[in-house]
Structures are given as structure tokens and as C-alpha cells.
Recover the amino acids of this structure.
């Protein structure tokens, strides 16, 4: 009878081992599942976060008043724009943001050029890109006379 | 005499950080991100002791960064024991976040240098394919939000990120603020005597140089497109720093990469300074 008991013990032992392994693999599967669930939750939170942060609130169009007339051939340097007057009474306004990396360009009266102080991109009085690392022309803004009987202009940026 | 590499630069950096945090908190009470340049000028000129507190914040923050760089160099020279790659990368990343803290401080004063540096950084981020807009929005967003997000990140975001990265390191080396009284005294006296820089926008300025650590980058941006000059080029240096992990077989290559990069960057900085002086 003894050998038979031994055999039963061995079978019991194997059964126990199999049950243990099954338990471990179930635990591992559950752990893995929890990790995936955690990852999915992080992604689920990250998406609305990035959408929230990444939304650019549209800027209100700004109307800026230039109080005086610009003499023919002259210019007016605003904080974000520059306005020019041609010899024949025509006026135009340009953004001062350099199209390379956004620094503010300044007008060089001797060279009659707009120059970026950061990386020396050069633009014509009409905003055309002439030299330097910038690839695009300067954007223009709408400019009009301030109104009947009033001196100066209104620039919309 | 103690050898330079044996000096506890890290502990001194912590004391400089205490001073920077305290003075930063005081300056923040008067600073207004809606009118950054105006409020910085007012702090400097009208607010009683405003110039002193801003100087103290500026110089203690600069010193903090310089001291952690010295600490980093000293550790490397002392043949440190091998470290898990993850810990090393975390420590190097904390240094980069400290640089971001310094840089965002420069932007916040919104003078000619600060606002240009901010715009340049934002446009560099925007040049990153696919995630550029998200990165620019999260870190700066100057174009649409002015200084709002830069301020939030400078005050909370970058600081928290730095603390998370550095905490496993600094919790083992607590430093009391009274450990280096001479350092406190020197920085405070210096700040009382030397005002922090402020460069108003001037008409007819056709050359400006960015912060000292930015001049080399500014120079390379003249010749190379923003993504390559502003993202890929600095990433090579960061990659080199990552390779310096103590005990790593690639450490030698990392050293060559970092040294070569630094020599080139120094040359570019000198070129930038010369171009500035020639204007």
C-alpha cells in the first residue's frame, strides 16, 4: 500500500504546483492588465489636457491710432508695426515681427531697410525679404486715414 | 588647500537656491505678467528696495546654476562610482530644467533681450515637426498668451519638475541655509551694489545679443534652419551628457562629444560677441 500513497502524494504535489502556477499566471495577467489600464487612463487624461493647453484663444483685433500724419517718404515706428508714407500720399503698414524667429525689426533710415537685430535678416520698406535667414516677407496690416478732418491713421493688427 | 574638485559645490548651490527662492517669492508679489516690462521697470525704479530684491533674485539664480554646473564637473572629475543609467539621466535632466528656470526668468523681465529670447525660443519649438505647437503652447505661448504661461511655468511648473527630478538626489544631502554664511553675505552685498541687467527697447538698434548662455545658439541660428540649430544641435550636447553615466562603456565617447560641442559653442559665442561689438 505504501507505494500507492507515495504516488498519491506525487500527484497531489503536481496538482498543487499546477494550481500555484495557474495562480501566478492569473496574477501576472491581472498585473499586466492593470498596467495597460493605467496606461490607457494616463492617455485618456493626457488627451484632454493637451487639447486644453494647445488651444489658442483668438486675439481680439486691435485698432491702433497714429495721432499724426506721416510726411511723404517718412515712417512711424509702433510697438508691433511700422507704417510708411510714399512720395505720392500712399501709406502702408507692416508687422515688425521678423519672419525668421519673431524678433522686432528696426528701420534703418540710412540704408532704407528694415533690419532684424537678432539674426540680421533684411527687408525692404515694402516688407520684401532681401537677405538673411528669414524666408518670408513681412506681413502687412490694414491702415487707413483716421477720418474726415482728423489727422493721423488707424492701423488694424 | 582643498582641491577644486573636493569643494562641495552642490551644497553651495542649494544655499544659492534658498536665496533665489526667497527673493523670487518677494519679487513675484509685485510682478505683473499682464504688463511684464512695465512692472519690472516699476520694481526697479519705484518700489522701495525693488531693485535690490530683483538683483538678489537675478544673481542668486545665476549663481545657483553656475554652482550646479561646477558640482557636475567636480563629480565627473572625481571618478564617481557607477550609477544606474536611469538615475543619471534624471540628474542631467534636472540640470536642463534648471536652465529652463533661468531662461524663463530672462524672458519674464520682457526687456529687449528677454522678449526677443522668448520669441526666438517659441519659434524654435514651433519648428519641431508634429508636436511643435503643443510644446510651444505648454512651455511658453508668448504669441497668444503673453507672459502668462511663462510666468506659471517659472513659478510652479519648472520648479515642481526640477524638484521631482532632483528629489531622490537631494533628500540624502540636506543643506542648512546657515552652512555657508559668507556666500549669503557676498551675494546679498553684491546685489545691493550691482543692479540686475535691464535693456529697454531702443529705436535704431540693429544688433542685440541674448543671455550669455544663448549667444552661441543665436549665432548658429544665423546660418542654420531653426529646427537643426535650435533642437538637433543642442540635443547632441544633451545626448553626450547622457552618455557620461559613470560606469558606462560609452563614457569616453560622451566626453569627446561634450568637449567638442563645448569648444564649438565657445567659438560661436566669441563670434557672436565680436559681431555684437562690431555693430
Amino acid at each position: 500500500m505504501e507505494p500507492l500513497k507515495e504516488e498519491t502524494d506525487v500527484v497531489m504535489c503536481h496538482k498543487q504546483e499546477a494550481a500555484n502556477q495557474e495562480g501566478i499566471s492569473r496574477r501576472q495577467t491581472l498585473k499586466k492588465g492593470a498596467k495597460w489600464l493605467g496606461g490607457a487612463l494616463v492617455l485618456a487624461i493626457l488627451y484632454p489636457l493637451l487639447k486644453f493647453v494647445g488651444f489658442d484663444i483668438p486675439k481680439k483685433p486691435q485698432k491702433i491710432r497714429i495721432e499724426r500724419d506721416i510726411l511723404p517718404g517718412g515712417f512711424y515706428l509702433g510697438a508691433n508695426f511700422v507704417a510708411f508714407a510714399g512720395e505720392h500720399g500712399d501709406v502702408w503698414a507692416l508687422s515688425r515681427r521678423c519672419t525668421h524667429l519673431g524678433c522686432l525689426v528696426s528701420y534703418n533710415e540710412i540704408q532704407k531697410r528694415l533690419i532684424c537685430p537678432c539674426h540680421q535678416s533684411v527687408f525692404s520698406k515694402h516688407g520684401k525679404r532681401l537677405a538673411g535667414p528669414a524666408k518670408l516677407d513681412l506681413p502687412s496690416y490694414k491702415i487707413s486715414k483716421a477720418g474726415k478732418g482728423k489727422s493721423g491713421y488707424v492701423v488694424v493688427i | 588647500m582643498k582641491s577644486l574638485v573636493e569643494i562641495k559645490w552642490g551644497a553651495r548651490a542649494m544655499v544659492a537656491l534658498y536665496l533665489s527662492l526667497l527673493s523670487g517669492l518677494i519679487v513675484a508679489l509685485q510682478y505683473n505678467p499682464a504688463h511684464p516690462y512695465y512692472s519690472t521697470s516699476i520694481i526697479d525704479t519705484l518700489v522701495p528696495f525693488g531693485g535690490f530684491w530683483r538683483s538678489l533674485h537675478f544673481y542668486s539664480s545665476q549663481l545657483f546654476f553656475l554652482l550646479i554646473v561646477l558640482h557636475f564637473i567636480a563629480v565627473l572629475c572625481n571618478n564617481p562610482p557607477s550609477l544606474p543609467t536611469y538615475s543619471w539621466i534624471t540628474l542631467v535632466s534636472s540640470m536642463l530644467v534648471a536652465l529652463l528656470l533661468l531662461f524663463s526668468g530672462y524672458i519674464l523681465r520682457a526687456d529687449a533681450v528677454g522678449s526677443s529670447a522668448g520669441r526666438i525660443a517659441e519659434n524654435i519649438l514651433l519648428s519641431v515637426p508634429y508636436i511643435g505647437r503643443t510644446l510651444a503652447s505648454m512651455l511658453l505661448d508668448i504669441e497668444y498668451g503673453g507672459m502668462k504661461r511663462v510666468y506659471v511655468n517659472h513659478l510652479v511648473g519648472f520648479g515642481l519638475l526640477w524638484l521631482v527630478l532632483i528629489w531622490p538626489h537631494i533628500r540624502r544631502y540636506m543643506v542648512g541655509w546657515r552652512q555657508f554664511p559668507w556666500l549669503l553675505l557676498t551675494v546679498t552685498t553684491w546685489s545691493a551694489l550691482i543692479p540686475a541687467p535691464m535693456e529697454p527697447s531702443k529705436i535704431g538698434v540693429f544688433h542685440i545679443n541674448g543671455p550669455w548662455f544663448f549667444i552661441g545658439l543665436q549665432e548658429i541660428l544665423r546660418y542654420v534652419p531653426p529646427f537643426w540649430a535650435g533642437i538637433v544641435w543642442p540635443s547632441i550636447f544633451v545626448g553626450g551628457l547622457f552618455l557620461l553615466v559613470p560606469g558606462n562603456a560609452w563614457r569616453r565617447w560622451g566626453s569627446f562629444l561634450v568637449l567638442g560641442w563645448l569648444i564649438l559653442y565657445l567659438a560661436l559665442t566669441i563670434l557672436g560677441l565680436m559681431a555684437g561689438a562690431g555693430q
